[in-house]
Structures are given as C-alpha cells and as structure tokens.
Here is the input.
Amino acid sequence: SAWTSGDCGQRVVRGLVARNQPDLVVFWIGANDFRPLVWREQRVRFDFGTEGFAEHYRQRVSGMVAAATEAGGRALWLGLPNMREARMASAAKTLNDLQSGAAEGAGALPVATWKATSDPQGRYLAAIEGARGARPMRAEDGVHFTDYGYRRVAKVAFDAAAERFPEFAGDIAGIGEA
Here is the structure.
C-alpha cells in the first residue's frame, strides 16, 4: 500500500484540492490495499484482516474524505469492483466494507461497483453481451478495465452523484455513455 504514514493520503488530497479547487472529488483506490498497512512514524505494521488494520484503514479513509471536503466540496467514494482472482475478490469485499462505512461516516457518498462488475450470480464479469456480441469490459489482468469498462464504471459513479447532488446533474449528464 502507498499508505506508509499516518496522514500521507490526507496530505496528498489536501494538496490536490488546494491546487484544483474541485466541487466534487471522486475516490477510487485500494485494489492493492490487502497488503500490510505500515505506519512508519510509529514503527507499527498492521496485517490485513486484523482489527488494527481495520481501525487505521478506516481512519485514513475518513481523513482523506475530510481533506477533500474541508473547502466545501463534495466527495464520492467508489467501491472496489469484483475481480477475477478469488483471493483479490475476497480482499476487495473486505476493503469495500471498511471504505464504505468510513467514507459515509466522514460525509462522502459511497457508491458500490460490485454489481456493475459481476454477472447476475455475483461472479466476475469480463465482458458485456450486447446486440453486436460481447464487449470486453476488463483488462487481461482481471483487475483493471478496458476503455469501455471504465466508461461503465464512470456512468455508475456519475449517475449516483447526479442523484445525490442534483446541483451537479447538468454538468455530469452523459458521462460514461458508450
């Protein structure tokens, strides 16, 4: 994980917000966060799946949301997608639980991507069947997306943002349309 200090993510977010002054900050992070969380200043390491990891991870998510919204903007936190490898999919579910609760508690709109990246039975979805055949949604690694897949996720995100924050609806209408 890139989170190797207590407020690293918060500093990065504060800097980006100060430079860009966004009305809406969209977070979509964590695909590699199943690794140990290290807090260098305190010389502490928390293994994934432990209560220490969960507690500090939630604090970092909350801190990043707070840093994004201090200047009055809004925040949207996208959950992690379903992933092809079972171990990564399981970790993503755990991280989604931590992220969603912490983000919402700090004032962000949590938006799940799991359903949009899974088939009707909840399994990993690599492509979408359409009138012209299958359209690849996911990259070969089973984690990342094709351009079409990223547009699908963007549509999920911005549809949710337009519903929750109607003041942005006109500005974000049509984002993610194929």
Remarks:
- The chain has a mean pLDDT of 90.
- The chain has five helices and seven strands.
